[in-house]
Fold this sequence. Notes:
Blueprint: E1 3-7, H1 13-26, H2 33-45, E2 50-56, E3 59-71, E4 76-86, H3 95-109, E5 114-116, H4 124-132
Parallel strand pairs: 4-5
Antiparallel strand pairs: 1-2, 2-3, 3-4
Helix pairs in contact: 1-2
Amino acid sequence: xxxxxxxxxxxxLDAVAPLFDAYRRFYGQPxxxxxxxxxxxxxxxAGQSVVLLAERDSHAVGFTQLFPxxxxxxxxxMWVLNDLxxxxxxxxxxxxxxxxxxxxxxxxxxxxARIVLETxxxxxxxxxxxxxxxxxxxxxxxxxxxxxxx
Length: 150
């Protein structure tokens, strides 16, 4: 079965939204398909994110969402790979790796200086995948200040 990965458009929202909702549930958020769809629609319409959609036999099986960021030091665009999700029944078939590679190609073609992502230290499967795909763990530390009580 062939996997096709392409940039999603507004016409793909009904296919991507359930995957995005499942991704949010995976991270402990309550299921809310209308909210997931609205978030994606707003980001895509405003040009605030790029969604890459993985399809197998014309069925949506995974996605990644990238957000633009800029580096003052590099005076260049960067991309943050913020979300990556593959439907449970489609895992272990190379789709996540395909999405990572497609995201890197997109960022490179866009002229970005780099692409970054963050994952938890205990997510050993994801960390192994990222290393296999050529990503490097850095020694810098991200810090967070919750502004919404969460």
